[in-house]
Amino acid sequence: MWGNGLKWMFLIIGTMIGAGYASGRELWEFFGSESGLAIILFAILFSICCTVILTISANKKSTHYLPVLQAIMGERLSRIYDFMIIIYLFSVTVIMLAGGGATLEVVHVPYWLGTVIIGGMVVLLFLWDTKGMTSMNAFIIPILIVFLLGVLIAFQSLQGFPIEFRFDNQSNWPAALTFTALNILPLIAVLGAIGNEIKHKGEIWIASIGSGIILGGISYLYNESLLQVAGDIMLYEIPLFAILKHYPYFMVLIMSALLWLAIYTTAASGVFGLLSRTREWIKGPAWMIALLLISIMAPLTTIGFSTLVSVLYPLYGVLNLYVLASLLLYPIIHRRSAMK
């Protein structure tokens, strides 16, 4: 139970911690000042959503997200959101590929070559299909969490830990709703594909609560660190480098490598969600379908990483609010219908 629970927890975190999140760009777009309460609310809402999605997925024994989506939204709306998820996963994976190119520019790798490298690595992963996906997350995500927390804690210690939480100054709390909503569609897409592999209810609780606590803690510490370098963030494509600017160059290289791995895990999650859905229409080995998807996405990465994040992420956050409301209400409605 614990082994599988942790495996699903790392899958959830791997889906979340991608180019937008690990770079700090996504947190900066949604949170910023007066956001402590918003981040706490996000952690709670996120855990609830993961619990509901995993429970439905396990009950349906699903191998892709459509049965989960139908249970949450109903037949008619699920058709609209099915299309939205496909577009969302496609565009977010493009963002990941663009982020891979932007990250490798730090070590003087041309942007176009960086996107080719990360695309090729995603295709290679799917030689092992689902097993490759979960094994990769279980290996990479703990390393990423340890290093990211290490950098943030070290940064705060240099600043004298000036973190202060005040309940009377938390006007940005609605950001919790849009930030949680932003991440709902990829969660449905990825967790809907593993329903037939969930064996025990305890796995769901471990994965949901564990991921909420870890992501909430990292988000709070990261946001507070970004606030302390707010004046420099405009100068950087990737806000994390504003925190790292006074660190030795080898630390920049290490975090660039880990950031690239975070981008890689989310690019893989996006392709995984698309692949599990498109297998109804496209027959063939997983790696071949992944190669086809990456080939279509590659030309779109020329738009640029920060532009894609700043435009698409807030837009999806608003569009997904209905899905978030449906998820939060699902246990109440489901319990009432069961009592009739």
Distance N terminus to C terminus?
33 Å
Helix content: over 70%
Determine the CATH superfamily: Hydantoin permease
Provide the structure class: mainly alpha
Q: Describe the global form.
A: globular
- What's the main sheet like? none
Rounded to the nearest angstrom, the radius of gyration is: 19 Å
From the 3D coordinates, which CATH architecture would you assign?
A: Orthogonal Bundle
Order of helices and strands: HHHHHHHHHHHHHHHHH
* CATH-defined topology: Hydantoin permease
Number of strands: 0
How much strand? under 5%
**Mean pLDDT score:** 82
Total number of distinct structural domains = 1
| Number of discrete helical segments | 17
CATH class: Mainly Alpha
Explain what you see.
The protein has 340 residues and is mostly helical. The chain has a single domain (2-15, 31-339), classed as Hydantoin permease, CATH 1.10.4160. Helices cover 77% and strands 0% of the residues. It is built from 17 helices and no strands. The longest helix is centred in the middle third of the chain and has 31 residues, at 129-159. The protein is globular and about 50 Å long. The chain crosses the membrane at residues 7-24, 36-59, 80-103, 109-127, 139-161, 173-192, 204-222, 249-275, 287-309, 315-333. InterPro entries: YkvI-like. It comes from Halalkalibacter suaedae.
